[in-house]
């Protein structure tokens, strides 16, 4: 049965974008399989009523929901029966250079000069907008166990927070120093110690600084796009944070990493309750749709609930969490945050407390891994697993999307003065945006996860980008998804002729197109990892782009994990030089010009 699509085909291009499976020997990185469909009438009707006719855009495009590829992340049977967490990292901010690009919950991959692939010749970068999740932190208080077996102290940093008039008396650089009173009879539940719960840890602050330094290394040192640190950059760059102080903690370190300044620097924030970056504005329809996805009316979620009851019982017995606490059992979010925050900071997994003392009955790595696998499955299901997910995300994140669209329009019109705009946000922000863009493989965006929008101007008509073929091979399970393999995937034309005759002798030279491969043995391993689907393998065809060239000469490239973003929508496809008119029409169709559809779509 064909997967249902949302919404009805209300917007179609004058030359309908066909879904074409183009040929190639190299494929998307994950095992493909048949997509199942969902049918729960109440939520479906709510989603179908979501859209209103949009104002006429410069270009009409398809804004329907399309399913993501079937992968190890959204395969519930594999998630429940598997072991480990694929090649994901949960215990360190450091990813070895040879593996950089793999999912690291503690410090997600971002744009770096060593992996960055320049846009093709004939295009000049005009504008960059970055949105990222904050970096690693202590656990939220609400995600602490009722009684924790050890303390968590943050005496290695200061949380600076003070006001100072721009003209007049100066302020001391006051910072909050956490302490635990020995005589206060009112003690908190959960973690005790000098930390705030949450706050960005010393390690998270260092990761934030390095993130900023890496961005400067690409957009100034490598591309020459940003002004120098001794130049007039303050009027050309902007930073935006949410009301949650952890985003400001990240922004301060990131700005210093980029600009090597300790001088006062403004970061934009919006009033609490209507902040669209977090987001915080009221959107009842979105909440209703998300609740329906996370309910028994969704067969996939109902199946997940039936199959995880015993796991929750085991977790509750070890943690002391009451079995009737709905917040801990609606999703695996609380357990995921609690365990991953410990492991990212090299803290031990906890043990069951008996009489206030640790027992020998402890959380194992296998238990933690099961939580991590299920957490990623839940995010995939909530944000990409049903047609309703697009409606829920587009309404609740539509105001931010509309602001991005306006920023792009201003640059195209020649009225934009900002070169670089950086947003520091949350996992809910990133997930909704990934849903709006219909990412082909949804995961839970980890600490520091980043999406970059690069706007380019075509230098001449001959440089117009050609549609990129959508490859159809798959990567064998168990392969190391390192930079060598990624380069083989990107260089599919060269690999198709080179790999069949490759030998692994020490004298075999590595070709220049595979410079990320250390030697012939690593290149041979990458070649061997790429396989063709057999006749019995069913795949969900990924879209191929057939968009007309940009009328304005402006194109958008979108990066996720430092690599080109792949959308399941045929309108967007592999987001490498998408005509800006296409992207703007897609946004307008979902949220309206200047967010004109959002209020009605949230009602």
Automatic annotation (TrEMBL):
Highest taxon of the lineage: Eukaryota
Q: Give the molecular function GO annotations.
A: phosphatase activity
Q: What is this protein called?
A: 3-phytase
